[in-house]
Amino acid sequence: MFALRAKGYVVELSYVRDASGEYVAEYAARKDGCLLSADTAEALLGLAAMWEVRGDAWSTCTDDERSWRDALEEAAPVYDSDGDVVDEDAY
Questions:
Q1: In the chain, which ranges are continuous DSSP H helix?
Q2: Nearest alpha carbon to residue 28 among 7, 52, 55, 1
Q3: ∠ at Cα 65 (63, 69), nearest 5°?
Q4: How many other CB atoms are found less than 10 A from the CB of residue 5?
Q5: Contact, 86 vs 79, CB < 8 A?
Q6: pTM exceeds 0.85, yes or no
């Protein structure tokens, strides 16, 4: 949250009581007419970074970006619970 403040955002934290009676944190940041909100401070910082780079269309995904993400996912190794690489032929 300090990183967002340092970047000029007004940061807010509130708690919402869910159906089970538990309190859930809601983080929000405002800057230049933009309001971002997330469940964690880290997620909020990530949204702010995306907005700073992409502007108001931060969640839009182009064909090039989809292709890049698909290639990244295709090349990603899979690990088991012991940290060993899973043979791709096994799944």
A1: 2-6, 41-54, 63-75
A2: 1
A3: 120
A4: 11
A5: yes
A6: no
User: Are the CB atoms for 48 and 29 separated by under 8 Å?
Assistant: yes
Cβ neighbours of residue 3 closer than 8 Å, sequence gap 6 or more: 45
Across the chain, which has 91 residues, the per-10-residue mean pLDDT values are 95 95 96 95 95 85 89 93 82 54
* pLDDT score recorded for residue 89: 66
Q: H helices then E strands: how many in the chain?
A: 3, 3
Ranges of each domain in the chain = 2-90
**Token digits of residue 37:** 């909100």
Contact at 8 Å (CB) between 34 and 78?
A: no
Q: What is the pLDDT of residue 90?
A: 58
Nearest-Å Rg of the Cα atoms of the chain is: 18
Closest to 47 in 3D by CA, of 70, 31, 63: 31
